Structure formats: structure tokens, C-alpha cells
Amino acid sequence: MAAPLPPSRPRIPGSGLAKGLAVTLRTMTRKTVTEQYPDVQPDLPPRTRGVIGLFEENCTVCMLCARECPDWCIYIDSHKETVPAATPGGRERSRNVLDRFAIDFSLCMYCGICIEVCPFDALFWSPEFEYAETDIRDLTHERDKLREWMWTVPAPPALDPGAEEPKEIAAARKSAEKLAAQQAPPVTEPHADEQARAAERPTRPQGDSKQQTDQPRPDQPKPDQPKPDQPRPDEPGPDQPRPDQPGPGQGGQG
After folding, report:
1. What is the mean pLDDT of residues 223-241?
2. Is 128 in contact with 150 (CB distance < 8 Å)?
3. Are 114 and 71 in contact (CB under 8 A)?
4. What residues have CB less than 8 Å from 24, skipping those under 6 apart?
5. CB 74: neighbour CB atoms within 10 A?
6. What are 180-191's pLDDT values in tens digits?
7. Which residues pair with 76 in a beta bridge?
8. What is the pTM assigned to this prediction?
9. Which of 9, 42, 53, 218 is 20 to 30 A distant from 201 in Cα terms?
């Protein structure tokens, strides 16, 4: 058998009306916050999806955006041009040239698929939202208008300081440094000739300074003194008689 419900408190007549009036009075006493649009532009989030901007230089007319669009609101026209060979004897190439790029914003549902599938970063989200028209046919904007919206695209957020540098940027930096090194004139060191001449000079033995090498050593005779085993030029040899001594054939007076 179920337990009996607790007795409910008696309801005061007019309590709901009093609560509503209390909310009204509380709101009336607060300061109103009114955005003065269009004199003051609203602060939009950084990832606002307003319109789509076109960076025409990156478009290669690959038609991926038009094929993947679920609403088929992108219209692209192009033609082919022949590019002459860059080197003599090379082969000519053909490239696609963009003639028309238009988006019908009356059909666009702002899914962003065209921006995601573009492999060359030619489409970007712009926070612009003031493109209302009185005629629905004027909501199809051509590439000139899309190019103007491109300059309102906010800058991408800063990368993580610990993130790895993209391979494309690293390759571009290496190519620029290599090209700059090839174009720069050779740098000659001011002391290069002196170093070359110093290398050609005969080297002194280590431990002997210039003063030590110029002065004779104690065990070496001076330049003006003869060696001990060499007779002087003015002194007769051992086999020659001296001037003050008689020779072997000369006797003394007696």
C-alpha cells in the first residue's frame, strides 16, 4: 500500500501575479544596454561566418568547390591558355585562366564545405554580414565583390610556440636563403693576405722568442771570437815556429 502524500501548503491567491510584478520591477531598475547599430558595429566572434571571400591569385580552377557544394550555388567559368616554354627546347604548357567566379548567397547555407575542400587556400570566411538586397537576383556576387570581402578576413590566430614549423614555410625560407647567398658578392676578409704571408714565413722553434734567437747562446762562441779548436789568424800553428823562437835549423849564439 502506497504511503500517503504529505499535505500541501495552502496556496495564497495572487502569489503568481506578485512574482511577475517583482521581476518587472527588478528589470526596470537596471540600466538598459542597447547596441547602437548601425552607428556602432557589433563585436563579432573571430570565427563568424558572414560571407565568403575569394583570393583570386590562388585559384587554379580545379572546380572542387563547385562540385562539392551541396546547393550548387558556385558558378565558375574559365578558358585555357598556352604558356611558352621556360627554357629553350622545353615543352609548352597549358593553364586554366579564371573568367568568372560567382556565389549565389540566396542559395548558400554557409556550411563551409567549399572552404574546407579548396586545396590552394583561395576561399576564406569573412565576418561581413551587411549584404542585404531588395532584389533576390542581386544576391549573386561576382568575383570583384568577393575580392573586396577578402581584405576583411581577420588574420589567423598565432601558432603554438612549441608547434613545428610548416614544411612549406621551411622550404621557402631555405630557398630564399640559398638564392640570397648566390646573389651576394664574395666577402673577402681584410686580414686574409696577411694570414697568407704569415703562413709562408719560416716558423721559429717553440719556446724561443725573437730576442732569444737573435742573441747567441752561452755555449756558442761570439761571432767575433774564433772557436777554441781553431787557431787565430795571427797565431802560428803547432808545426810553425813562433817569430820569437829559433827554428829547428838555427842554433843559439855561442
Report:
1. 55
2. no
3. no
4. none
5. 20
6. 988 877 655 555
7. 101
8. 0.52
9. 218
